[in-house]
Design brief:
Number of domains: 1
Number of strands: 11
Radius of gyration: 20 Å
Number of helices: 12
Shape: globular
Structural class: alpha/beta
CATH topology: TIM Barrel
Strand content: 15-25%
CATH class: Alpha Beta
CATH architecture: Alpha-Beta Barrel
Order of helices and strands: EHEHEHEHHHEEEHEHHEHEHEH
Length: 374
């Protein structure tokens, strides 16, 4: 199984002082390198108006890439693809794929509702429907397949338009294009991803994981892909494990989880009081519920957390592996820039030392050179 850790988790600033931006950026760089040295692949979020580094995560990743061990991957959880012009997005993805020799994983989805699409000039209702994400990805596929000499290709998606007469440069290092991991919360999306040969992000905000994986695996078998494509899908089929706390005993882990959750919710509540409602990601479910958009603001992402000693946590990891999850995307509880940093730090170190070695594919941890500074 592969293991990744999210840099700075789901960061919200405790204040909006521009003078603090450099400190937070340096902190995000240092934590990214530290995670990689512990043995994790390193992942970044893609957000606007609430964090000084993740408004341009691909540029941030290009800085981090040469600082981490060469066998580590970097990833994005997830790129909000409707927020980009398709040509610029494909160019940027291809360039980062080339620079890392394919060691980059692009989670793709619709992104968050609220101030982000509004600030980027995107119709909020159209964005919330999920259509822009699907349509943007369709255009991206056409751009990756376009060759010099092909008939002219015109597209229009949201407010973005283009007429393509020559191939996108650079070409991707990976073939046929960089590794995409598609957010999929509905059966149709799971089946489409399987037929396309894409790994998927599953378990988003409480989806039924066992049923989801059965649907995906069945569709993947029916697609009759070459074995290499199927293997890549299963290797990077990803579960977003939000809210992980590891300690010496179950009791200590639960106590630490409680204080870490409290700090996180206090920061979110303070942020909302200063700047207004926090809307969560676009989640297309079979039966949308009232208030679904602000589930995140109310802590909905922390209802299915895991807290325990290494044996307890490893048992949960095995359950996920047995369901077909090949990649566990970890978000350790504890505010790295706050008072519960030690909860995150101790959990990540204990997971790397006591849990990852039980699952053979995890890259071997190294002694973190930055540990003393953290």
């Amino acid at each position: 199984m592969q293991f990744s850790a999210m840099t700075m988790n789901m960061f919200f600033p405790t204040n909006d002082d521009p003078g603090d931006d450099n400190r937070i950026i340096d902190m995000a760089v240092a934590q990214s390198v530290w995670f990689a040295e512990l043995g994790y692949h390193v992942w970044f979020t893609d957000h606007h108006f609430r964090g000084p580094w993740h408004s341009n995560p691909m540029q941030f990743a290009s800085y981090v890439a040469p600082l981490i061990p060469r066998d580590r991957y970097m990833g994005f959880g997830v790129l909000s693809i409707p927020f980009y012009h398709p040509v610029r997005l494909v160019e940027s993805m291809n360039l980062l794929d080339q620079m890392t020799k394919g060691k980059v994983l692009f989670g793709v989805g619709s992104g968050w509702q609220g101030t982000e699409p509004t600030g980027l000039g995107i119709d909020p209702e159209l964005h919330a429907s999920g259509r822009l994400g699907d349509e943007t990805l369709d255009v991206m596929e056409r751009l990756w397949s376009f060759k010099n000499g092909d008939p002219e290709y015109s597209f229009s998606v949201g407010s973005n338009t283009g007429v393509i007469k020559r191939r996108i440069m650079p070409a991707p290092y990976s073939k046929p294009y960089p590794t995409i991991i598609r957010v999929a919360t509905r059966e149709a999306a799971l089946v489409k991803a399987a037929h396309k040969g894409w790994p998927v992000f599953v378990g988003v905000l409480g989806a039924d994981l066992r049923e989801t994986m059965q649907t995906y695996r069945r569709a993947l078998d029916e697609a009759n892909h070459p074995q290499a494509v199927k293997d890549n899908c299963l290797r990077w089929c990803s579960y977003d494990w939000i809210g992980v706390t590891v300690a010496a005993t179950d009791e200590e882990a639960l106590a630490r989880e409680k204080i870490a959750k409290a700090e996180t919710m206090a920061i979110r509540t303070s942020f909302a009081a200063r700047h207004g409602r926090i809307d969560g990601p676009v989640v297309k479910t079979p039966q949308p519920t009232p208030g679904q958009a602000d589930t995140y603001a109310k802590g909905g992402d922390m209802r299915a957390t895991i807290a325990g000693n290494p044996d307890t946590v490893a048992a949960k990891v095995k359950q996920l592996a047995d369901m077909g999850i090949g990649h566990l995307h970890l978000r350790f509880l504890g505010e790295w820039a706050g008072e519960t940093r030690h909860v995150c730090k101790d959990s990540a170190e204990l997971f790397a030392k006591e849990v990852m070695p039980r699952f053979a594919e995890a890259p071997a941890a190294r002694k973190p050179a930055l540990a003393a500074a953290l």
